[in-house]
Specification:
The protein has 401 residues and is an alpha+beta fold. Helix content is 22%, strand content 22%. It has helices at residues 2-21, 83-91, 109-115, 124-127, 148-151, 168-184, 195-201, 214-223, 286-296, and strands spanning 29-30, 45-47, 50-52, 57-60, 63-68, 71-74, 96-98, 131-132, 146-147, 249-251, 257-259, 275-276, 280-282, 299-306, 312-317, 332-346, 352-359, 371-375, 387-389, 392-393. The protein binds 2-acetamido-2-deoxy-beta-D-glucopyranose (NAG) (4 copies).
Amino acid sequence: MWTGYKILIFSYLATEIWTEGSSLSGRDVGLGAASSRNHSSSEGCLRDGQHFKEGSVIKENCNPCTCSQQQWRCSQHACLVRPELLEHINNGDFGWTAQNYSQFWGMTLQEGFTHRLGTLPPGPTLLSMNEVTASLPTHTDLPEIFISSYKWPGWTHGPLDQKNCAASWAFSTASVAADRIAIHSKGQYTANLSPQNLISCCAKSRLGCHGGSIDRAWWFLRKRGLVSHACYPLLRDPRPDAHACAMESRAAARGRRQATRPCPNSLEKSNRIFQCSPAYRVSSNETEIMREIMQNGPVQAIMQVHEDFFHYKTGIYRHVAGSREESKYRKLRSHAVKLTGWGTLRGAQGKKEKFWIAANSWGKSWGENGYFRILRGVNESDIEKLIIAAWGQLARSDQEP
Ligand SMILES: *[C@@H]1O[C@H](CO)[C@@H](O)[C@H](O)[C@H]1NC(C)=O
Ligand SMILES: *[C@@H]1O[C@H](CO)[C@@H](O)[C@H](O)[C@H]1NC(C)=O
Ligand SMILES: *[C@@H]1O[C@H](CO)[C@@H](O)[C@H](O)[C@H]1NC(C)=O
Ligand SMILES: *[C@@H]1O[C@H](CO)[C@@H](O)[C@H](O)[C@H]1NC(C)=O
């Protein structure tokens, strides 16, 4: 009984707070479900001094509001962008700042988590993989700051934008593989690899834009291989799954594979297939991860994304819980990103803090030019829990067709 009452109070407060921050005046906002009474209702509703007819529908962030009996009645979904969480983060001293991203405005929290991530939680196969230790001599001094793109200019690849395709499993894998093929070939092959090739063709992970597993992605890189991103670019269709796989490969000499079709776009002629060695797991030890990156290139990390992460603009990310503890506003899902370097900086409360530099797949307008920094050495958001890498597979017989 009391619980039910509390929920009522909460949802009332929620509406009040929401109303304050929105452009609807309190008077015009309905607090509950529409009643079935029917007024003579020619008067309609007001919004920003503008008149709306009875039955009009407008959208307040992620919630549609209907003008019914001279009142706006809004659905009560939790939205992905929550102005009071933005304020809480920006008024606090958490080491990072938040931004209201227009690409997320209007999405529900559920939609954000459903469409913008897309890596299945690592299964037992991945978690039981043996850890491989970098062969860099243990006494090697690790620099205070390391940035992959400085050590290997032109050989590493910046973030793409997965948009509403829940395929971070494909974006992060293709990106790590591309960087490593460029690094291990000493710059002979510097093409970015095609996440679309994985999304559309990795049949064993049929989910495509509805999430997938990275062990399947790495299996595909080893057994089938990918063409370049220029050859098989991202599809613009909002339903990418509607597209059949437009690139096949078949076995050629010495375990290598060849494309059986031209690129599915007329601008790029090279349909070379790129492959990797079996993926391996890197230790969760911070020092080991650093050594692996410095020696062999960027690595893949599976992290847990909380609702505040979407708002990240700049600084060193650490999870910040909203001031309201309602479960409605909380969510957690796994996501795959690429770790590209590290550093230290004076962060929250003026303390010196260690961070990783990571590439996300939400485009360059998000975060620090598509990248983010996150606390290092404390397993923040599980960022150090599962680190995966592979070798670019390069045969001496490689020849452009
Ligand atoms: C309310 O009025 C609308 C027309 O404005 C009408 O279509 C609808 O049937 C009425 N509903 C009830 C419950 O009287
Ligand atoms: C956030 O951005 C959207 C559009 O990009 C804008 O309509 C909205 O008013 C902004 N909200 C806040 C709280 O700044
Ligand atoms: C991580 O590995 C290094 C050696 O590379 C070792 O000195 C250190 O103690 C390890 N840290 C942990 C927490 O195991
Ligand atoms: C990281 O945190 C997760 C969950 O809190 C835990 O399962 C995992 O073992 C941790 N990993 C390390 C390396 O501390």
